[in-house]
Every structure is written in C-alpha cells, then in structure tokens.
Specification:
alpha/beta, eight-stranded mixed β-sheet
Length: about 220
C-alpha cells in the first residue's frame, strides 16, 4: 500500500488529507471516509481498514477538517457538506469514478443529510442519527453547531438518500441505541442493519468483524 500526503482545499481553507492506494494494480474505485466527531480519520480502525481495502485493490481517501471540539462546533452543516463536495471533486480529478462512502458516527449525520448521488454504496459505522418527530434542520443548516442548542432531524432529512446503505451497529453501543438504528434504517430508501457482537461505539473492540463486514460491502464484486 502506498500513502500520499495531500491537502484538501475548501473555500480558501486547506486541510490535511491522505490517499491510500494499492501497490499492485491501478484502480478506479475509492472509498471516502467521514470520521466521527471525536474520532479523527487517521489511526486505529481507519488505518487498518484502509490497509485491508488496498489489499483488495480499493483506494481510500481521508481528510480532517477539525481536530478539536471547538473547531467542530465552529462549523455548520453547510460547511460539512461543502467539504464533502470538495473531497468528491478531488478524487474525481484523480481519476476515481467508482466511489463508496464510509461514514462513522457523526460522519453519518453529515453524509446521510446530503446528496449522495456520487456514491454507489454507503456504509455507516454506527451513524449518530437520532430521528425526531419534527425537524428544524433546514433552519439551522448554516448555523455553527456551537450556536445550535437542539438540532433535530426527522425522516424527511434522510429520505433523499437513494444509494444503498448498510448500517453496522455494535450490540454494546452506548451512544447509538438499537431503536435509533432501526428507525434510521426504516427511513432510508434502501438500507439494511447488521449487528456486530461485542462492539461498542468506538469500533475498535471487534476489529476483525468490523473490517470483514466493511470489505464485504465496499469491495466491488466485478459488476
């Protein structure tokens, strides 16, 4: 596996990015990663997954647009979505035309509230999406998180996701409840929910199963 240290430019801001590519062959397939709010995209399970994807001739593009809670709270969903759009454009410019999205926890909230037409499949590692009966998402779309006291999403906010989605949730997850995961799955047009025994919200406890499930879903089958 080769690792390229890159920069992602978004509206005049520059962020650290990494592209992991297979050593043995060229590929047109790339997985984009959206990390959790307190779990950056470099290290731990993300490194392991990128390595294993490279062994299967799949590239991985990761970028980090916040490193502290204050930086995260200064951003709005308009900012997060602009960053995702910039990443999609970046990998497209590099020749990848078959894209998959891997979104962890808060990254799932970013991805599933946006247009995901660029992606063939979406994999959510315990997406932190708790659906309410009524949404105020549109009213706070441009509001920094730190200025939003009670952001609410409802089923309509994720109804525009047409790509197939697989949601993985550990049966010991202390953040995303089984009810939250089931309700999100039901709200999506094409989604399935799979449970990982012995896993909590970190996705670092049962790494073997996490990686196996990820490869099963994100490695193209030649179609």
């Amino acid at each position: 596996m080769a690792i390229s240290l890159l920069e992602l430019d978004v509206d005049g801001e520059t962020y650290e990015a990494r592209l992991n590519t297979p050593e043995a062959s060229d590929t047109d397939t790339c997985v984009l990663v959206l990390p959790g709010g307190g779990h950056g995209p470099f290290g731990d399970i993300f490194d392991i997954t990128a390595y294993e994807l490279a062994q299967e001739s799949v590239a991985t593009y990761r970028f980090e647009t916040w490193t502290t809670a204050d930086e995260l709270r200064a951003k709005s969903f308009a900012d997060f979505h602009a960053e995702l759009d910039a990443a999609i454009a970046e990998v497209g410019d590099r020749g990848y035309d078959r894209l998959f999205l891997l979104a962890k926890s808060f990254g799932g909230r970013i991805g599933l509230t946006h247009d995901l037409d660029a992606f063939e499949r979406v994999l959510g590692w315990a997406p932190a999406v708790r659906l309410a009966d009524e949404s105020n998402f549109e009213n706070h779309y441009d509001t920094p998180l730190g200025e939003t006291e009670d952001l609410q999403l409802d089923a309509g906010d994720v109804a525009g996701v047409d790509a197939p989605v697989r949601i993985l949730r550990g049966n010991e997850d202390e953040v995303v409840s089984a009810d939250d995961a089931e309700r999100l799955t039901a709200a999506l047009a094409d989604a399935e929910l799979r449970e990982i025994p012995g896993e909590d919200h970190s996705f670092n406890e049962n790494r073997t199963t996490v990686v196996a499930e990820t490869l099963d879903y994100l490695v193209p089958d030649g179609d």
